[in-house]
Amino acid sequence: MKTNTVKKLIIIVLIVILLLGGIFAYLYFGTDLLKTNGQLFFKYLGQVVDVQDGFFDRQLIEYSNKKYTGKYEDSGTFSADINMTGMDSEMLKTLNEFNITYSGKIDNTARKNEQDISINYSSDLNFPLKYKYANETLGLQTDYVSSKYIGIENNNLKEFVEKFGVTDTTDFPDTIDFFSKFTNQETVNLTDEEREQVINTYTGVLEGKLGEKEFTKSEENGTTSYSVQITNQEMKDLMLTFLETLKNDQIMMPKMEEMFKEILDNVNMNQSTNEEITMQSVIQQMIDDMNDSEVQEGTNTITVSQTDKKLSAITLTTTDTTTTVELKITKTNNQGNLTYGMEMNVIDSETQDNMRYFLTASYQGLEQLATVNETYQYGITGTMDGEEQRMIYNLNCTDTFNDGITIEDYTEDEIQVLNDYNAEEILTLAMTIAERINEVNAMQMEQIGFSEYGNPLLFTFPLTSIGLLTYNQAANAVDESSMSEVEMSTFNSQFTQYTGEQRGTTIKSLLQMILSNNLSQTEENKKVEVSGVVTMTKDDTEAPIDEINSGSTYNVEIQYNEGWVSGIVITEQ
Question: How many other CB atoms are found less than 10 A from the CB of residue 395?
């Protein structure tokens, strides 16, 4: 009796132990309850390359593959929201009314693309443009110039540029692939086993360097974050270890070599030494440069955030004696609405400057892959030199997949193919087109009151944001009647690009461009004279291109008047 009781007690204890063990295992492996802040930091950091919970979303990859291989109709709008302290209110009004719209069809299976583009200066004033790629020929057309497309055949491009006196075409491609993917998806994809090994390798590096550090935890609006702080020296050591590990990585290095094969081949083809450049040698150079660099005083905080047990953000905050820089990368997926974000905040405690730079990309419709809406926003906001700055650019796109779409080839009388003409004929045609576009632009800018600034296109593209900031600062520093430094630089650059030794065909193009400029300018200080082997006054109505020998070599020297290009001296070599 006593023995049976003992047996029952042992069985009950074993069952309790097993149950508790199972509960403990579930709590540890299935939840975050029993893990330290450090373990959770590494857990969610390791999700970066996870196909379900990480940053590389499987549905977005499927959409990209379908978009680059299938047929679809597209449409979109580019617009800007700009407000800068001190900038002329009429200029701001024009910039914010300006937008570009497009609609068209893309057939990747037949390598064809056609788009109707409208550059809209106001609700009732625009510049229409057509783009078409068919018969392996790229063409542009606008009714303001011609009813025909002006095109270039995407074949024997080396031979085409040689018409203009270019002798070294080594780096110039014979064709340009307008339908290639940005990356070879089969190359960069990792198998499940490879992915797990990569995660373990690099989280192991982090744990080896940061494992003894103190990790902190914070919660806000349903998001839990885990942070660790390291010095600049520790950050340098961490990066060196990462690079050393990557250099010897048997999984990642072959994939990186394949990804950048074309770039590496071009570099090796054109370098003067016989030493082959590989991804390993590039990484070794990065290691050498980092070892030679001096470490400044400062601290870094690395933060990993999770929402609903999925990685949602990685943040790096760097602080020195006067400046704090925070770089944050985020991902949210709310019922099929996928959004990526990259944001950098820069705060200077001395100048009180506080600038925010951000880029977001949102996708709707990824689950069905029938119609997908893409929204991109790039912006710069904040305070610089005590003045508020806001420049936000929006691009909204809609892609509707349709296997039934077709794009017609060019008909024989629909396009003028420049490959069929010689250099002088092409230059004459190009100058004629440029003159006509200048005339139309001058007329349209007069209508919207923007003639002083050239064209809203010069200011409303994201790549010119820094130029817009520079313009605003320069405009505040000069009289209202003066032109800004940005305008001067823009004006001068069309001439200074010809400085130095040039072939005769290039000189002819320069003369036609100067003539076009002088005919379209109403301000005397923006007209240019030519002297030397040929002369052309500001008031000439024809360019002396017949006096230039296409096969000869000439030297171009620029003359300035109060910073503006005022004269061009051409001498024969």
Answer: 16
pTM of the model as a whole: 0.73
| Enclosing H/E stretch for 567 | strand 564-572
**What single string gives the DSSP state of each residue in 148-173?**
SEEEEESS-HHHHHHTTT----TTS-
Sequence-distant (6+) residues with CB within 8 A of 233 are: 295
Work out the angle between the directed axes of helices 192-210 and 37-45 (0-180°, nearest 10).
140
Choose from 13-17, 302-306, 330-334 the range with maximum mean pLDDT: 302-306
Angstrom distance (rounded) from CA 496 to CA 514: 12
Residue 409 in contact with residue 136, Cβ under 8 Å? no
Nearest CA-CA partner of 310 in 224, 252, 196, 400? 224
CA gap 398, 73 in Å, rounded: 8
**pLDDT above 90: percentage of residues in the chain:** 35
- CA–CA distance, 451 with 469 (Å, rounded to integer): 20
Nearest Cα neighbor of 374 from 382, 363, 383 is 363
Give the whole-angstrom CA distance, residue 259 versus residue 48: 20
- CA–CA separation, 324 vs 315, rounded Å? 13
Cα–Cα distance, 509 to 496 (Å, whole number): 14
For the cut 50, the answer to whether the pLDDT of residue 358 exceeds it is yes
- Determine the residue type at 137: T
Q: Which of 516, 514, 485 is nearest to 497 (CA)?
A: 514
pLDDT tens per residue across span 115-153: 999 999 999 999 999 999 999 999 999 999 999 999 999
DSSP sequence for 14-41? HHHHHHHHHHHHIIIIISSTTS-HHHHH
Average pLDDT score over the chain: 82
Helix ranges restricted to H, 248-317: 252-259, 261-270, 279-292
- C-alpha–C-alpha distance, residues 195 and 332, integer Å: 22
Q: Dump pLDDT digits (tens) for 297-309.
A: 889 999 999 988 8
pLDDT-based confidence at 189, cuts 50/70/90? low
Residue 195 and residue 202 in contact, taking contact as beta carbons nearer than 8 Å = no
In angstroms, the Cα distances linking 405 to 105, 402, 416, 540 are: 7, 6, 26, 52
Q: What is the pLDDT of residue 197?
A: 87
Please answer whether residues 527 and 521 qualify as being in contact, where contact means their C-beta atoms are separated by less than 8 angstroms.
yes
Bridge-based pairing of strands 564-572 and 529-532 is parallel
Asked if residue 78 lies in contact with residue 100, where contact means CB atoms within 8 angstroms, the answer is yes
Helix (H) or strand (E) holding 189: none
> What is the rounded distance in angstroms from the CA atom of residue 272 to the CA atom of residue 278?
15
